[in-house]
Design a protein that fits this description.
13% of the residues lie in helices and 19% in strands. It has 310 residues and is of the alpha+beta class. It has one domain: paralog of FGE (formylglycine-generating enzyme) (Alpha-Beta Complex), CATH 3.90.1580.
Length: 310
């Protein structure tokens, strides 16, 4: 890709480089009407979490504009939440039952991390502030790195290239909903108080990798020391104290809530992704938050479902 392609790009980033967003000047597509709410059997296999109080947020002021500071006492009512993010298999069943077309499919493109594209991939536009993000035509949940790519070997990996609109449609069909931001953080912490990660404060305790993030020199070389380059299976690594897998790392997870007045129109994403690296994005922590527009999609954004207690 030439430097001119980078500087000419009009696609935007969502406030920082964790995930890109569609041009805010473009109208957001509506949700297709053929995804029938509640047409799937009632959700099963969700973890039952009791209500309680915890300290939400953080007192580590590395990203003050993100709104994670300061920590504060927060109460959450009991709810249910999936042990893992929605997989490609899960989303395949949804599409087969409803004929749903995702935002990326209707718009014709999505964002792909350039490091996952083959060396001979055709030249594409890049995000001006984060040129590792490429606008790839034909990139969808079925074709994560563009038209020539497939889901072979990734049926148990998280579905990606799904917008907030798409995630909400799946949850409505399945009889659930997206978790609130408070619910997500409460669940991600797994019962631990004010720890950075779902297992404690050390990133790799005893040298053991506990989540899928970027190792090496970002964005040029991911050494894959945690066992993965790109997404990992939804059940990879050990679960936290509440039974949640990959609450941090792997893919960003949409929540139901709006980001707040500093980023009007954006929805909150949590958990970080396989592209997080301490050199630029220390957001693979329980308290960290990000945001993006409801119609944006990328190869590192997925979701998990929640529901009210029965």
């Amino acid at each position: 890709m030439s430097p001119d392609a980078v500087h000419a790009a009009t696609v935007q980033t969502g406030g920082h480089c964790c995930s890109p967003q569609r041009d805010p000047a473009s109208p957001a597509p509506g949700e297709p009407q053929h995804a029938v709410p509640g047409s799937a059997p009632p959700p099963t296999g969700l973890l039952e979490l009791p209500g309680g109080s915890f300290r939400m947020g953080s007192d580590e002021y590395r990203y003050p504009d993100d709104g994670e500071n300061p920590s504060r006492p927060t109460h959450v009512d009991g709810f249910r939440i999936a042990a893992h993010t929605v997989s490609n298999d899960d989303f395949t069943r949804f599409v087969a039952a409803t004929g749903y077309g995702t935002t990326a499919e209707r718009e014709g493109w999505s964002f792909v991390f350039g490091g996952l594209l083959p060396a001979d991939f055709p030249e594409t536009r890049a995000v001006a502030q984060a040129p590792w993000w490429r606008q790839v035509y034909g990139a969808t949940w079925l074709h994560p790195e563009g038209p020539a790519s497939t889901l072979d070997g990734r049926s148990d990996h998280p579905v990606v290239h799904v917008s907030w609109i798409d995630a909400r449609a799946f949850c409505r069909w399945a009889g659930g909903r997206l978790p609130s931001e408070v619910e997500w953080e409460y669940a991600a912490r797994g019962g631990l108080d004010q720890r950075r990660y779902p297992w404690g404060d050390e990133l790799t305790p005893g040298g053991e990798h506990r989540m899928n993030v970027f190792q090496g020199r970002f964005p040029d070389t991911d050494t894959g020391e945690d066992g993965f380059v790109g997404t990992a299976p939804v059940h990879a690594f050990a679960p936290n104290g509440y039974g949640l897998y990959n609450a941090t790392g792997n893919v960003w997870e949409w929540t139901a809530d709006r980001f707040g007045p500093t980023r009007p129109g954006q929805r909150v994403m949590r958990g970080g992704s396989y592209l997080c690296h301490d050199s630029y994005c220390w957001r693979y922590r329980c308290a960290a938050r990000s945001g993006n527009t409801p119609d944006s999609s990328a190869g590192n954004i997925g979701f998990r479902m929640a529901a009210a207690r029965e």
